[in-house]
Amino acid sequence: MPPQTSLARKRFRQFLLAVAALHVAAIAAYYALDVPGAAPRVQRTYAWVWMGLTVFVVLAGLQRIKRARGRTVLRRPEGSGDQADRA
Questions:
Q1: Which of 10, 19, 29, 53 has its CA 20 to 30 A from that of 3?
Q2: What is the pTM of this model?
Q3: What single DSSP character describes residue 34?
Q4: How far apart are alpha carbons 13 and 61 in whole angstroms?
Q5: Phi–psi pair at 5, nearest 5 degrees
Q6: 22: number of Cβ within 10 Å
Q7: pLDDT by residue (tens digit) across 36-80?
């Protein structure tokens, strides 16, 4: 039986696949819709929509990875530096 993969690694793999799938679909649509031959305004709109979708997928994916890692990674252990330095 293969070793158990952590949830964070699974989420990271899903994140990479989602970004890659988005770009493959966007590039395919770019040529299928003949965006290079379209008016500059259409090209800009296409680019902005693509960029907006990319930002959405990246932020959602990073949130899923963060939740999978748990909040304990982000907390400082008690007695580490800040409190001791103030006294």
A1: 19
A2: 0.72
A3: T
A4: 10
A5: -90, 135
A6: 16
A7: 999 999 999 999 999 999 999 999 999 999 999 885 455 555 665
**Range of lowest pLDDT (3-12, 29-38, 39-48):** 3-12
Q: How far apart are CA 29 and CA 49, in angstroms?
A: 12
pLDDT at 13: 95
**DSSP states of 62-84 as a string?**
HHHHHHHH-GGGTSPPTTSSHHH
Identity of the amino acid at 21: A
**How far is the C-alpha of 33 from the C-alpha of 28, rounded, in Å?**
9
**CB atoms inside a 10 Å sphere around CB 65:** 17
Quick check: 14 pLDDT over 80?
yes
Where are the strands (E) in 12-55, listed by range?
A: none
Total Cβ atoms within 10 A of residue 11: 19
